[in-house]
Amino acid sequence: MRAKLSYALTAAALVFYFVLVGSRGVMLIQSGTLLTVTFGVAVLILPVIGLWFLWKNTQFVRKANQLAAALDAEGGLPVDELRRTPGGRIDRDSADEVFAKRKAETEAAPDDWRSWFRLAVAYHDARDTPRARKAMQRAIALHENRAPFSA
After folding, report:
1. In this model, does residue 87 exceed pLDDT 90?
2. Alpha-carbon distance 108 to 130, whole Å?
3. Does the global pTM surpass 0.85?
4. Would you give the distance in Å from CA 67 to the centre of its chain?
């Protein structure tokens, strides 16, 4: 719940910022000179890109959460078997061991969205965020192709 609240507050702050920047872009365009109109258009592009990025990330998180809920309902969420340092951080060797298991599971069942979901969690635990995101995107794509009419 805390993560959702943080995400919502961050998204709201970004939307506020995009509106503020967009209004400045409109003001520049309304000035009417070639230079200010050019800058105004350039300034308007930033909020558009930002809103697109925020929308895509929100959709990704929503879909990943749906997969987590589906996997939880099946009793298939990965169990936290990671060792921790005294400070509470995940032990790197432990994360690598779990990652090796998850990778083998995914290689054995490459068309199963569940194995890709668990691999994404393992990548995340190993602090490899780009690969975690790609694995989760693969899990989402496999799940959507498996059940195209589900919500």
Report:
1. no
2. 22
3. no
4. 13
